[in-house]
Amino acid sequence: MTSPAFQTARQQGRLAPLKFEHAVLRTTELAPMVEWYLEVLQAEVSFSNSSIAFLCYDEQNHRLALVVRPGTTARDPSSAGLDHLAFTYADLSELVTTYERLQASGIAPTRCMNHGSSMSLYYADPDGNQIELKVDSFDTCEQQHAWMRSEAFAQNPVGTPFDIDELATQLKAGVPAHHLIGRPGD
User: Fold this and answer.
1) pLDDT in tens, 138-149
2) Which end of the chain is more exposed for a tag (fewer CB within 10 A), N or C?
3) How many CB atoms lie within 10 A of CB 50?
């Protein structure tokens, strides 16, 4: 529930969508993409044939679809378009556990960023699309929005890299998650 300090677009009287429903990625190789997303997201296949797969991991019948279309070619990594999709975990322990599971499967992050508002691990799928696995640093929407409007965020909206192995070691050693989340010095 949101407090009076933060209101969604709908609460402000704008006819905005209720939620973001799903994303569809076009690919040249369906099977490797399906396997990768099943592993990374711990998803299930809702439906699949030789040209499309619908994947789910929550109450929605699919959050991600992968489709092969005739004439599709590999995307130039420097071309304009969608940069990444982001998926949020409940807490830092879940994010670290997911990192370790993926690492054991040979899937390593391409970068780890402390955005201040989140701790994020970025991965590249077999087609080179980026996905972000993250945990929020703040407990409320108000805190998240205040951070986005802060001078600290304005000075560095991208964030700072961090060592996920060091973070995992500290978490397992008993350092409370709230000491590990957030940018150093903030």
Assistant:
1) 988 888 889 999
2) N
3) 8
Nearest Cα to Cα of residue 149 among 179, 122, 116, 185: 116
Largest CA distance in the chain: 52
What digits encode the pLDDT tens for the residues 84-103? 999 999 999 999 999 999 99
- DSSP secondary structure code for residue 58 in this structure: S
* pLDDT score for 131: 97
Sheet holding 160-161, edge to edge: 84-89, 130-136, 118-124, 111-114, 160-161
Question: If one looks up domain 83-175 in CATH, what number appears?
Answer: 3.10.180.10
Q: Where do the CATH 3.10.180.10 domains begin and end in the chain?
A: 21-70, 83-175
Task: Report the topology of domain 21-70.
Answer: 2,3-Dihydroxybiphenyl 1,2-Dioxygenase; domain 1 (3.10.180)
